[in-house]
Design a protein that fits this description.
By secondary structure, the protein is mostly helical. The chain has one domain (about 5-45, about 55-170): Four Helix Bundle (Hemerythrin (Met), subunit A). It has helices spanning about 20-40, 45, 55-80, 90-95, 105-125, 145-170; strands at about 135, 140-145. The protein has a two-stranded antiparallel sheet. A hairpin with a 4-residue loop joins strand 1 and strand 2. Helix 1 (about 20-40) runs antiparallel to helix 5 (about 105-125), helix 3 (about 55-80) runs parallel beside helix 5 (about 105-125) and helix 3 packs antiparallel against helix 6 (about 145-170). The mean pLDDT is about 90.
Length: about 170
């Protein structure tokens, strides 16, 4: 697959909070975009693990698992914590979850529900009031709330692109 590795990505957070509406809409439409990619996929395709890498179901489960992390990091910034809550860089929760044993509708619905919680949280926060930064532990880069939103939508796009590449290899 040609999709670049997520951990190799570098991020430029030099944009302003005027990007909030566009980023919020990307966050809001992430599940819809993913759903459009998954139309009419057989369970065989959805559970296929190329060379031991994640299946489509595992990518979707992974998105659900990480959604609470995004909310926690948003709270970290609002609470002015110096360092954002770290994640498990080995993605143990994803690899051990057994997502290939779940129905795609259940996995997708879980992602939709988790994303709704994130959108609800953002609806309760005035982004202009929270310009504090907290250090991202892996990137060693300060991040604002708007940066967390950008990071999240880019993470969505990354996994959607990997899924699309996987589908191409199976056709």
């Amino acid at each position: 697959m040609n999709a670049s590795k997520w951990f190799d990505r570098k991020f430029n957070f030099s944009f302003g909070t005027d990007e909030y509406t566009a980023l919020y809409q990307r966050l809001q439409h992430g599940p819809d975009i993913l759903a459009s990619v998954l139309i009419d996929m057989s369970d065989h395709v959805l559970a296929y693990q190329p060379a031991g890498k994640w299946s489509i179901k595992e990518h979707i489960g992974h998105l659900s698992i990480l959604e609470p992390l995004w909310r926690t990091r948003m709270h970290d910034i609002v609470e002015k914590k110096p360092i954002l809550t770290p994640t498990d860089l080995d993605n143990k929760a994803t690899t051990e979850a057994g997502f290939n044993n779940y129905a795609i509708t259940d996995l997708f619905q879980q992602f939709v529900e988790e994303r709704r919680k994130t959108l609800s949280l953002l609806g309760s926060i005035d982004i202009q009031e929270h310009q504090h930064t907290s250090l991202h532990p892996r990137l060693q880069q300060p991040m604002r709330l708007i940066d967390i939103i950008y990071f999240t939508v880019e993470h969505d796009d990354h996994h959607t692109n990997v899924i699309q590449e996987l589908i191409k290899t199976l056709k």
